Amino acid sequence: MTTSIAKLQEIYNQQGFLSALPVLDETELREARRAFSELEEEFGEEYTQYSLHNVHLQYPWVKDLTKHPQILPVVKAIIGPDVILLDSRFICKYPTVKPKHQENEEGETKPDVEENELPYVAWHQDMRYWGIAGGPVLSVWLALDDSLKENGALQVIPGSHCAGMLPHRQAVRPGNMLSVNQEIPEELVQADEAVICPLLAGQMSVHDGFLVHASDANMSQRRRCGFVIRYVPTCAYPIQDPNRPRKFHATELACGADQFKHFSNKTA
Ligand SMILES: O=C(O)CCC(=O)C(=O)O
What we know:
Elements: H1 5-15, E1 17-22, H2 26-43, H3 45-50, H4 60-66, H5 72-79, E2 83-93, E3 102-103, E4 109-110, E5 121-124, E6 132-133, E7 138-143, E8 154-156, E9 169-170, E10 182-183, E11 195-196, E12 203-208, E13 213-215, E14 224-233, E15 237-238, E16 252-255
């Protein structure tokens, strides 16, 4: 890392996120992409888009990513030495302009999905659906492909993690990839302050559970695949909140020691 851990901590506390931190070297990246393409082949793109959830339980290469030596030092610097791996998910936006576009009778090409229904992620805060108290939730977004404006990179509102929880509602526009289809109403989002977090394949961004973030549809011909890993300090605990009914079946100690055992029964 070129920036010191102390500096990263300072920036994270102020902005609520860090971006473009190097993680995978060339060989590791090649291997991760090869392994992911096997999952694509096995499950198909519709599934791998958003349903590879907590597959670190099944695939050692995915588990290794959650404990990567370039990731954990950053996570520990921010949330402390004792860390629980809370959850993981691949989020993959496939190109919208693909050969499967078919000519209609007039000889025009038409996408399978209308442009305003393409998969995107609405403005939201992760804490709105993670029923966790007693400590922060930190998300790592590890890029397996270059993740840029044109293929729907993550966008964040710097400093928005300091405003506490904002109201969410059911998303108005179709295509929201989030499992419970939540969004912050647009009048509450300072979208003019949004910044894109462009990542090269192998880099990661890191964001706080209260940071307001989103991502646009992939309007390019290039896949945008990311692996999202959520971590909490061991002092955090699951709460019974009917508005945030998330279960935590796939947790384990990522590093340090767990004197609390809040997640040991794997349910919330
Ligand atoms: O991958 C995306 O576009 C959104 C990811 C996200 O919302 C998250 O990591 O919390």
